[in-house]
Amino acid sequence: MRRTTMYSTGGKKLYAVRAADGTFKDIQTYERAHRADMARTSAAEKTTARKAAVKKAPAKKKSPAKKAAKNATKKVARKKTGARKTARRT
User: Fold this and answer.
1) How many CA atoms lie within 13 A of 38 on its CB side?
2) Which tens digits make up the pLDDT trace of 3-23?
3) CB 11, CB 19: distance < 8 Å
4) Which sign, positive or negative, has the C-alpha torsion 46, 50, 55, 58?
5) Contact 32, 23 (CB under 8 A)
6) Quick one: the chain helix, strand, coil %, rounded to 5?
7) Which residues lie across from 13 on neighbouring strands?
8) DSSP state of 16
């Protein structure tokens, strides 16, 4: 479906779809037409999604030993003391 681009008197961009005889079949603002296009999935996107789903391997589970080793090596943040020494004035 090919669209003709036009502008309204208010300055908004319009898309107009023409019928076979050349009359306007549908006129829509660019915003609405673009939003509808983004909501719809194209045939090319569907085929690439199918190919990606076939190639995707199942996720491997981590062993409990590796998980425990990872947690053991984490550094623990030291707590800062609230009281601070102030410099003496002489």
Assistant:
1) 6
2) 888 899 999 999 988 888 988
3) no
4) positive
5) no
6) 35, 20, 45
7) 7
8) E
The Cα 36–Cα 3 span in angstroms is: 14
What token pair was written down for 67?
A: 């998980």
Q: Tell me the domain boundaries of the chain.
A: 3-42
Name the H helices within the chain.
30-39, 43-55, 64-72
Residue whose token pair is 């998980």: 67
What would you report as the CA-atom Rg of the chain, rounded to the nearest whole angstrom? Answer: 31
Q: Which of 50, 7, 48 is nearest to 30 (CA)?
A: 7
Burial 16-34 (b: 16+ CB within 10 A, else e): eeeeeeeeeeeeeeeeebe
Judge whether residue 84 has pLDDT over 70: no
Split at pLDDT 50, 70, 90, the class of 37 is confident
